[in-house]
């Protein structure tokens, strides 16, 4: 069993995968989507808990680190949405109502940041809402 801090770090890393998948839904990550993510991390995620990564930095920054890494890899977003779903199902206890609400709020902010949410982004937002509602 992972200790709670490792689980939280994993949660933040998987949130980075999710938010990348949302931004990449139209096969292109736009600068406005990156900005929306960065603003959400600073305004919403840094105050969630006191967990730090192995470098002593707020673990919430793992969201941005993973997102940036995936963006540099130019990876397919669908794979990372599925990985987030798997992590969510295996670690349901980490996802409180507040975390689920913040996650959806951030995903939506990324989706609408560039010319509103397109069909691909809306589908992923719907899948995310169903995932959170099904547990």
Q: How much helical structure, as a percent, in the residues?
A: 55-70%
Task: List the helices and strands in order.
Answer: HHHHHH
Evaluate the radius of gyration. Answer: 14 Å
Taking the sheet with the most strands, its summary is:
none
Structural class: mainly alpha
Protein traits:
135 residues; single chain; mainly alpha; 70% helix
Description:
With 135 residues, this protein is mostly helical. It is built from six helices and no strands. It has helices at residues 4-23, 31-45, 61-73, 77-90, 97-112, 119-134.
Brief sketch in words of this structure:
This protein is 70% helix and 0% strand. With 135 residues, it is an all-alpha fold.
Which helices and strands occur, and which strands form pairs?
Blueprint: H1 4-23, H2 31-45, H3 61-73, H4 77-90, H5 97-112, H6 119-134
């Amino acid at each position: 069993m992972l200790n709670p801090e490792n689980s939280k770090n994993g949660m933040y890393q998987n949130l980075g995968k999710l938010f990348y998948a949302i931004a990449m839904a139209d096969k292109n990550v736009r600068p406005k989507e990156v900005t929306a993510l960065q603003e959400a991390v600073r305004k919403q995620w840094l105050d969630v808990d006191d967990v730090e990564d192995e470098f002593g930095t707020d673990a919430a920054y793992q969201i941005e680190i993973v997102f940036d890494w995936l963006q540099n890899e130019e990876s397919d977003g669908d794979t990372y949405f599925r990985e987030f779903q798997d992590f969510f199902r295996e670690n349901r206890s980490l996802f409180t109502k507040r975390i689920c609400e913040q996650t959806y709020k951030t995903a939506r902010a990324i989706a609408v940041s560039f010319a509103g949410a397109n069909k691909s982004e809306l589908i992923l937002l719907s899948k995310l809402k169903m995932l959170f509602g099904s547990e």
